[in-house]
Model the fold of this input.
Amino acid sequence: MATKSIITGLVLIVLGVVVTAASDSNSATSLIPAFVGVVFVTLGVAGRKKPDLHHHFMHGAAMLSLLAILGSLGSLIGRSGSSWAVFSQIATSVISAFFLVLAIQSFKEARAARQLEGA
Done:
């Protein structure tokens, strides 16, 4: 799951940089996906470095994905900004939702494996 967190983070970093460059934005807000991506990468790397705390870091990454979804969709309400901003927010939501689904599946599989070990 740590690798998926790192990949998600890298995709969000690329998204933020590309949208900022393509839109000629002078605002740091266009880099928000990149900032979120850095946190995903950090959580993924930390999960790899500290295997005993891996599940905590991945729960943090799942929570981050939920916050990214809610934040991106929430700011779309009443949005009349540029098409790049709308694209960025929708892409951030989709990427984060994809990660959240993978995280939930992973958590379910880990729980099932623990139950089998205990049985």
About this structure: The radius of gyration is 16 Å.
